Amino acid sequence: MQIATWNVNSVRTRLEHVVNWLQSHPAVDVLCLQETKVVDADFPHQPFTDLGWHTYIYGQKSYNGVAIVSRQPMSDIKMGFAAILDDVGDLDEQKRVIAAIANDIRIVNLYVPNGSAVGSDKYEYKLRWLDALRQYLQALLANDPRPTLICGDFNVALEDIDIHDASDRANQVMATDAEREALQSVLHLGFKDVFRKFTAEAGHYSWWDYRGGSFQRNRGWRIDYHFVTENLYERAIACEIDVEPRRLTQPSDHTPVIVEF
DNA sequence: ATGGCTTCAGAATGAAGA
User: Fold this and answer.
1) In the complex, which nucleotide's C1' lies nearest to the CA atom of residue A157?
2) A224 CB-near residues (< 8 Å, 6+ apart)
3) pLDDT confidence tier of residue A28, bands split at 50, 70 and 90
4) At A243, is the secondary structure helix, strand, or coil?
5) Distance CA A106, CA A74 (A)
6) A39-48 pLDDT tens trace
7) Distance, Å, A187 CA → B11 C1'
8) Strand B and chain A: which residues 133-152 have CB closer than 7 Å?
9) Å from A63 (CA) to B17 (C1')?
10) Confidence (pLDDT) at A57
11) Which residues 5-64 in chain A have a CB closer than 7 A to strand B?
C-alpha cells in the first residue's frame, strides 16, 4: 500500500498536476492534499470521480483546506479537532484536519499553521494548535489503537539537517526550539519519522521557496512528513520524496512524499 | 532590502504563505 502527501497550494490551480500525478503513479492508493483553498461547494470532485477515485474534503474560502483522494472508498471520515475533542475553541475555524481509515490504517491528514513570524500572534496560534493536535491524537489512539499514520505539511523542520541553512534558526519560523518541542510532544505519543528509516543524510527537502531560485539551488526545507506508529514503522518498505512535480511549470512550492507498506 | 514569488479575493499602500 502506498500513501502520499502533497501540499498543492490551491487544488484548482494545480488540478492538472494532481490528476496527472495520480494517473502516472498507479501504485499510490491514497493521496492527502493540503492548502486546497476552496470551499466544499466548489471543490473539483469530478476530475477525480470520473476516474473512479473517491474524494473526502474539509475546506474553506481562500486559505487552508485539506482533502483525501483514495482509489478505494474510505471509512470513518472525521473532520476537524471537534470530531474527537470536546472544547476546541477557535482551532477548527481554519480547516486543517481530516482523518479516515483505509486498509485498517487510520490516516490523519494535517496542515499545521505556518506561524508567520517568531513571536507573532500566528506563531502563538501555531503552538496552541500543535498542543491541541497532541490532545486529539492522544484521545484518538486511546479510543482506537489501530495502526495510525499522520501526514501532511507540518511547517516544522525537525532537525538542522532538514534545512538547507539552519544558521539563523532561532529567528526563523518552522525552525525554532519551541516549534520543534511542540511537534516532538506530538511524536512522543508513539510516532516515528518514517523517512528517516531509509535516509539518514542531509539535503532532502519537500518545500522550496518560490523566490530567489531556491529550487534550482536546492535551498529547501523538509517540512512534509509521514509519522507512523511503531507497527507501521516496522511494516514500511520505502519512503521517498518525489521532486519531479516541483520542476513543472507553475508548480506548487511543495512536492509529494510517498510511503509504502 | 521588514525584500525576493504565488495564490486568492476583489479593486489595496492587500493578506498570507513559509
Assistant:
1) B18
2) A5, A6, A7, A151, A152, A153, A154, A206, A207, A254, A255, A257
3) very high
4) coil
5) 10
6) 999 999 999 9
7) 45
8) none
9) 9
10) 98
11) 7, 9-10, 12-13, 35, 37, 61-63
What's the pLDDT at A9? 98
Q: What SS3 state is found at A135?
A: helix
Give residue-wise pLDDT tens across range A101-158: 999 999 999 999 999 999 999 999 999 999 999 999 999 999 999 999 999 999 999 9
The strand pair at A105-111 and A75-79 is best described as: unpaired
For residue A117, give the nucleotide whose C1' atom is nearest its CA: B18
Taking residue A63's Cβ as centre, other Cβ atoms within 10 Å add up to 13
Residues 6+ apart with CB under 8 A from A208: A214, A215, A218, A219, A220, A221, A246, A253
Distance of alpha carbon A261 from alpha carbon A256, whole angstroms = 17
Q: Residue A63 CA to nucleotide B14 C1', Å?
A: 15
CB-strand contact A114/B, under 7 Å: yes
